Amino acid sequence: MKKEQRSKKPRGLITTSATANNRRDQKEQDIIVTPQTNHDLVDLQKENHSLSIIASNDPSMAQLLATLESTSISKCNINSTSMNSNHKPAQDQVMDQTDSISPQDDLIEILSTPDRGLAVFASRKIKAGNLVLAERPLLRLSKEEENDSDAIEREFSRLSHADQKIYLKLFDAQKSRMTRVTSIYYSNCYNLDSFRPDGKGGSAVGAIASRFNHSCVPNLQLSFNFDKNLMMFYAIRDIPRGKEVCTNYEKNVFDAAVTRQRKLQMYYGFMCQCEACLGPAKNEFWAKSDQRRRAMFEAFKRIQECEKGYTASAVETEDPDPTQSVYIVEALAALVKLESLLVKEGLNGVVLTNTYRSLSKWSERLQDYPQAARWKEKEEINSLHGLGPHAFRTIECDKKIKELVRRADETGQ
Ligand SMILES: [Zn+2]
């Protein structure tokens, strides 16, 4: 099957120094958190998921893959031992099964590509919401220590010799004025801040997670499980067999292609070749990607202005009827537009989850509790698909839906 080549492996020498804002960042601009657990929805997550490593023809790659296979994969990654696809083990059972790899039921494979080094592909059809990979980080640094090169070196020195070897083979953007270990850390780490309610999650590097290439229209999303110390990647849309699986390194999805390219080149040293970046070269639909993203940004700006205006007017007015606020109508209109643009562009990740959260919040301000509950349900499904049932945001949604339904009853809606 033809493999799509959507993004380029980071390559080349770059001279910028890494900072906290140039790491792979799943945290998006917005706003407020409101998640919970719906057990019916959680059941959707009880799918098989496992991982395989397919050795490439390149001897050095094959050696690396063999090392990976014999060490961190078997020790660190989740693999369902029940490989019959009809069997759906509970999430926790799956979590505990860390020592087997099934060749016949794996979801992804790592292949060597002619132009981009290693890349990861779906080895069979993956449904939206499936857990694609869960791996224990090789290195993880707290918020306080992630900018401290000595702390990174210290954590590296605590790794086993085999894991050190794996780590040193990860992509190095050769960031200036840094040791190799630190440079590799900043070239591969994922930001974990948004996965904790206090916003201080730090960052982590995973052996397999580092092999996911970037796409501006990603089909995977990271969620970090702090209880189990696992980087968990969920499919945020259906992924056909043979398609490359990609995450998003760049947090500002509203940027135009040229701006995204500039940032990716600067921080990671590669030119993205995803659908959204190829634009007109891809087809008519993707030729309009920039136009859609510009409209998303306009809508987002309007929502921010409404938030400011609403908050200020609520403070200034003695006894306002908040439902009469012009800001509510405008914010809801902008959010509905933003939601439809995100869906059209295929950006099903955390920005869409945040949009549903805002839609629910503004509907609640309008005291339209049934509508607020419906948006909250959409947020919950989206959060469940992209962040998983363990995520605090998913868990909080359920409580909030119950509260909104109760308020709808109380107000006779
Ligand atoms: Zn791109």
TrEMBL record:
PROSITE patterns, per the entry: SET
Region (Disordered): 1-29
Chain intervals with Basic residues compositional bias: 1-11
Gene3D superfamilies found in the cross-reference section: SET domain, Tetratricopeptide repeat domain
Xref: Pfam families: SET (PF00856)
Residue ranges of domain SET in the record: 106-250
Protein name: SET domain-containing protein
Naturally occurring in which organism (per UniProt): Exophiala mesophila (Black yeast-like fungus)
Superkingdom assignment: Eukaryota
InterPro entries with a match to the protein in the record: SET_dom, SET_dom_sf, SET_domain_protein, TPR-like_helical_dom_sf
